[in-house]
Amino acid sequence: MGFFWGAMYISYGISVGIVLTVGVMLYYLANDPPVWVYLSVVAGIIITLTPLLFRYARILMLYFFAGVTYNSRFSKQLHDS
Description:
This protein has helices spanning 2-29, 35-65, 72-80. With 81 residues, the chain is mostly helical. Helix 1 runs antiparallel to helix 2. It starts with a helix and ends with a helix.
């Protein structure tokens, strides 16, 4: 269960970065639109990207904390079988 919560923290961090980036882009490119535009655009992007965010958060967690690395020999053995 701990692995799940760790991936959630990483996913949250990535989401915050996306929210800040989209908010700054909207502010400068759309000349400070109303609040409902910020909320709807950011919510739409985050909801759309949620499956990818969590998947990449799990991958990052495996690489950084579990010592998982890519082994090309295993990949070749898997495809040759």
